[in-house]
Amino acid sequence: MSELLPNYISGKWINSTGRGSALIDPVLGTELVRVDASGVDLAGAFAFARNTGGSALRSLTYPQRAAMLAAASKLLQANRDAYYDISIANSGTVKNDTAVDVDGGIYTLGTYAKLGQNLGDDHFLLDGDWQALGKDPLFQSQHILTPTRGVALFINAFNFPSWGLWEKAAPALLSGVPVIVKPATTTAWLTQRMIKDVIDAGIFPTGALSIICGSSAGLMDQLEPFDVISFTGSAQTASIIRAHPAVTQKSVRVNIEADSVNSALLLPGESASSEALDLLAKEVAREMTVKAGQKCTAIRRVFVPQSLYSAAAQAISARLEKTTVGNPRHESVRMGSLINREQYNSVAQGLAFLEQDCETLHSANKHTLIDVDPSVACCVGPTLLGTRTASGSDAARRVHDTEVFGPVATLIPYRENDLNHALELIRRGQGSLVASVFATDHTKLAQVIPELTDTHGRVHLVSPDVGAVHTGHGNVMPQSLHGGPGRAGGGEELGGLRALSFYHRRAAVQASTVVLSKLKPTGV
After folding, report:
1. What is the pLDDT of residue 393?
2. Domains, the chain
3. Which of 408, 419, 382, 438 minimizes the C-alpha distance to 301?
4. How large is the average pLDDT for residues 363-368?
5. Local confidence band at 523 (pLDDT 50, 70, 90 cut-offs)
6. pLDDT of 78-104, one tens digit each?
7. Which helix (H) or strand (E) element contains residue 142?
8. Scanning 228, 417, 442, 488, which has its CA 20 to 30 A from the CA of 203?
9. What is the per-residue pLDDT across 288-316, written as a single tens digit (0 to 9) for each?
């Protein structure tokens, strides 16, 4: 039996009492390590983090905590090669895709380290200016943000074991709130290793950072009123979390990132030879193949004018045909595997479901798998579907309701010169994390912004002048908001210092302006 990874709780490494779940190489089918949480004292772990870890963090100033983030970022960067090896083995990702997760996590951690340097040497933040409460200006109100005296529980998804950890932990730790992370079992190895390296280096106070690998059973039962929980995963699991007594009775603050059928839109007025169409095709192909399409921000629906349906299908397919699929250790491979056989079967079932409404424009069967045993490896080529006609787009309900979490996207034509039709179809997604819009005309791009921002957490606009410098549809930058309304979960993460609000409690202080003037003028 392979190594059983220990959990870190109550300031020490704890071995579970069970055999654990095996983490498998999705390409080779070999067992890597095991994880388990049997016998872990959850109540003790939460109390220790809440009291010991929380007290130690809150005793520090924001710049002091920022310095710890910087030290952690530097340490992780030094160990980067080891994280790449784990990711390739456990997630089946090629190096470029591993970078999105590993380097993205380290970059996010470093970004919050820099943001925290500019916050005041105090233990709270000001929120806005004084507000007069009456005719006499002597008595006014000032809102302040104070770190919550609880613990932050993170229940993370399998696709980003590094970035998914640090994009949550960085603002939490900077805020002064201790973290308990429960990574997805399938890819928990990388999360556990990163935390182990940070813990062994003694960067954060004891109890500030804990990890529990294995089953999540009982975790929510430990939450108290001033704790917070952040979840990334399926809408089905999100509904269970929202219905838990910790949320419904104790008002534990919850942040959810769930399903999302994200869109790419080519505005009316473009031609088959336009640079905007080429940029769209490039971005769609990239989003379909990065991490084998296993990204919550990946493009799932592609909207183009009816007259450009064939041209778009050809442009996207031409790029997909160049994608080599197989063993990520092989130098010629550009797309690795899905995370496991369960996900492989789920993608196959979802694809069959969508095909009932669509035609196949580019088949996964065009890709010969490189250096793998097809009966073992969880590799699959990219598939582009299409609804062919604008009327077919209206009738195709499945493509707007179903997210196939793999290298699958659907090309959807809208009525010629009818942007409202395209927007209507996009809104059938019931809220998404991100929409990208492509056009040559800057004025048209600006005009479409308010039509999308009410139903998307992020709107990414691409014109030819930024074709070579934009950060990408699916890349979540720490400076910008991550989250989305409706079926996307209704949550918000990142967005620079905005992320700190989730880990603080806002209160109004009503007092003499003489008293209020004693408060240091540092705010978010």
Report:
1. 85
2. 42-88+96-258+492-516 (3.40.605.10), 262-476 (3.40.309.10)
3. 408
4. 96
5. low
6. 999 999 999 999 999 999 999 999 999
7. strand 139-147
8. 228
9. 999 999 999 999 999 999 999 999 999 99
Helices (H) and strands (E) counted in the chain, each on its own, are 17, 22
As given in the structure block, the two tokens for residue 65 are 């905590």
Contacts of 263 (CB under 8 A, 6+ apart): 299, 300, 301, 302, 303, 426, 429, 432, 435, 436
Q: In what order do the strands lie in the sheet with 21-24?
A: 4-5, 31-35, 21-24
pTM assigned to the model: 0.96
Q: How many residues does the chain have?
A: 524
Q: Which two tokens stand for residue 55?
A: 């007290």
Residue 127: its H or E element: strand 125-132
Query: CB within 8 A of 498, min separation 6: which ones?
Result: 481, 492, 524
Active site residues: 257, 296
Backbone angles phi, psi at 122, to 5 degrees: -140, -170
Q: DSSP string of 104-120?
A: HHHHHHHHHHHHHHTS-
Q: What is the 3-state secondary structure (H, E, C) of 20-88?
A: CEEEECCCCCCEEEEECCCCCCHHHHHHHHHHHHHHHHHCCCHHHHHHHHHHHHHHHHHCHHHHHHHHH
pLDDT over threshold 80, residue 521: no
Question: Cα–Cα distance between 507 and 461 in angstroms, integer?
Answer: 37
CA distance between the termini of the chain: 50
* Pick from 85, 71, 104: nearest CA to 201: 71
Q: What is the pLDDT of residues 108-124, one digit of tens each?
A: 999 999 999 999 888 99
**DSSP helix/strand/coil, 454:** coil
Phi, psi for residue 126 in degrees, rounded to 5: -85, 145
Q: Cα separation of 223 and 82, whole Å?
A: 34
- DSSP-derived secondary structure for 274-311: -HHHHHHHHHHHHHHHGGGG--TT-EEEEEEEGGGHHH
Element (H, E) at 499: none
Tokens 């220790």 sit on residue: 48
433 pLDDT exceeds 60?
Answer: yes
Least confident of 22-26, 121-125, 324-328, 425-429: 121-125
Partnered with residue 505 across adjacent β-strands are: 146
Taking residues 168-183, report their average pLDDT: 98
Average pLDDT, the chain: 96
Q: Which two tokens stand for residue 495?
A: 């967005």
Among candidate residues 228, 119, 221, the one with its CA nearest the CA of residue 177: 228
Give the mean model confidence (pLDDT) for residues 229-255. 96
d(CA 365, CA 459): 33
What pLDDT is recorded for position 1?
65
- E strand or H helix at 443, and its extent? helix 442-452
